[in-house]
Amino acid sequence: MTTIAFCTFVHPPRYVEKLHRPGILRAMVESHRYPFDDVVVIHNQCRYVDYAPFDFPCRPVDLPREEFEPLMARFGVKPNDPQCEEITHGEGAAHWYKVHVVNHLRGAEVTHADYIVFADCDTFIKSQPENEPTWIEVGISILEQYPQVLIVGPGDGGEAGGGMGEGGKLPNGARLTQNVSQQLFICRGDQFRHEINFDVEWDGVRNAPGGPFQEYYCLMEGRLWRFMRETNTWRAILPDRWRYWHDSYWGNE
């Protein structure tokens, strides 16, 4: 039987406090309209027991700061990278690379599901067709049919403008790109755990599709881009009738 896990992440102070409010986690997970086998909430540099219990069934996992480097090493990522320290502005900065790499690694490590949905806690599914499979089911179908697709994400609002589709389209209209967003995607569990090189060498040239910000290249999304470039694999973005939303002000509410 195929199993699917949902994994999200929180960090202090605002994000973890909001996610623990009544109904918040439930609304996010249920927006996907899928009965996940496992819901994992990574608590990055905070402890689950210090906050109100969730009112939705899930598996909280703490990720203290002292576990960052050993976790990265287990997945073949250099625990200390001067290049990444420089371009992500060091520990304490908003996009310090280690914080934005270890979440996915810990999530992959603690679940044995066949497929994993990784979702930032400020994302949700805004809309999807009532009379068609969910984006989760469509994503799994793509991953089963197309080995060259590494990850699948729901629509990002770019379909009409034709952006992020340098690899062409699949028959269902999904755009293929090597521009990676780590905000929300589904992947093959075992492949993510055992086959991806998360530390492909980078020459420092900032030439990823879409011209992302400099920190990107050392975050999880940039590491997946490096791997895709090396292996000629792709991110599939579904048509916008399966639409997700990233609420950049979520943690301030």
Protein model, in words:
The N and C termini lie far apart (40 Å). The protein contains eight helices and ten strands. It is an alpha/beta fold and 253 residues long. It has one domain (4-252): Spore Coat Polysaccharide Biosynthesis Protein SpsA, Chain A (Alpha-Beta Complex).
Entry keywords:
single chain, about 250 residues, alpha/beta, Spore Coat Polysaccharide Biosynthesis Protein SpsA, Chain A, 8-stranded mixed beta sheet, about 25% helix, globular
The number of helical segments is 8
Number of β-strand runs: 10
- Read across the widest sheet, the strand sequence of neighbours is 3-2-1-4-8-6-9-7
Proportion of residues in helical segments: 25-40%
User: Span between N and C termini?
Assistant: 40 Å
Q: Tell me the major beta sheet.
A: 8 strands, mixed
Give a topology summary.
Layout: E1 4-10, H1 14-19, H2 24-30, E2 38-44, E3 59-63, H3 68-74, H4 82-87, H5 99-110, E4 115-120, E5 123-127, H6 135-145, E6 149-153, E7 175-177, E8 184-188, H7 189-194, H8 220-231, E9 234-237, E10 243-246
Parallel strand pairs: 1-2, 1-4, 2-3, 6-9
Antiparallel strand pairs: 4-8, 5-10, 6-8, 7-9
